[in-house]
Design brief:
Blueprint (H helix, E strand, L loop, with lengths): L4 E3 L3 H7 L12 E4 L4 E6 L6 E6 L17 E3 L10 H6 L1 E6 L1 E6 L8 E7 L5 E11 L5 E10 L3 H4 L5 E2 L7 H4 L7 H4 L11 E5 L22
Parallel strand pairs: 4-10, 5-10
Antiparallel strand pairs: 1-2, 1-7, 3-4, 3-6, 6-9, 7-8, 8-12, 9-10, 10-11
Length: about 220
């Protein structure tokens, strides 16, 4: 799964990485983004605009928004069949902007797992493949929400975890953000492991285990364990 990630760049750096996106909403560096928090997305609504959605998909038919707490991730191999995701897969897709994420590696002889920070070798921002929905609350408020799609791990991440988030290459953005309906067979080939040759991973402090810790110390490298 993908349960924590980062977007540590500023607005200017994000605009440089995604020049076709209106980033006027702005970003503040985040070092420990957790479920239920707002995350920066670009939805396939034709606006190409940075927006903030609740992390944890709340289907439009949900009676309780708490269901989103259990839907922070969606498995690529079951998107076309799962009632919670199949319509969004066809019609409501988004990019979730990031520049790194965390997974936890088991340590022989230890109960506690070691957090690993995973990013591109150059540290540049990238985009997870996501799905989005809009939920209308009984009180009249509207909650846009999203989930991050996961797939099989590449060879590097396989040593850390058995899943990884789908990171889309730039040439996949036009298809993924097409406002029109797309068939699963057109989209599924995009949901593959990102090449490990472009990525790096290193251990970090267990301080990242608490969402209350959201500082640069979360991504500081530890000595190899």
């Amino acid at each position: 799964m993908c349960g924590r990630f980062t977007l540590t760049v500023d607005t200017e750096q994000l605009q440089e990485a995604f020049p076709w996106v209106d980033v006027s909403a702005g970003v503040q560096p985040r070092y420990n983004i957790a479920p239920t928090q707002p995350v920066a997305v670009v939805a396939n609504n034709g606006d190409h605009k940075l927006e903030y959605f609740h992390w944890g998909l709340i289907p439009s038919w949900a009676k309780d928004p708490e269901i989103g707490n259990r839907m922070i991730n969606a498995r690529a191999d079951t998107l076309a069949e799962k009632p919670s995701f199949k319509n969004a897969f066809r019609r409501r897709r988004c990019l979730v902007l990031a520049n790194g994420f965390y997974e936890w590696r088991a340590i022989p002889g230890q109960k506690a797992k070691l957090p690993m920070y995973i990013r591109m070798k150059g540290g540049e921002p990238f985009a997870f493949a996501g799905l989005w929905e809009v939920w209308n609350s009984p009180d009249g408020s509207v909650i846009p929400s999203c989930t991050i799609i996961t797939t099989e791990p590449n060879n590097m991440i396989r040593e850390i975890h058995n899943r990884m988030p789908v990171i889309l290459p730039e040439d996949a953005y036009p298809i993924w953000l097409d406002p029109g309906e797309r068939k699963p067979e057109e989209l599924s080939p995009l949901l593959k492991p990102f090449p490990e040759t472009a990525m790096t991973a290193y251990p970090v402090s267990r301080a990242v285990n608490s969402p209350a810790n959201d500082t640069e110390a979360c991504i500081a490298p530890l000595a190899e364990v």
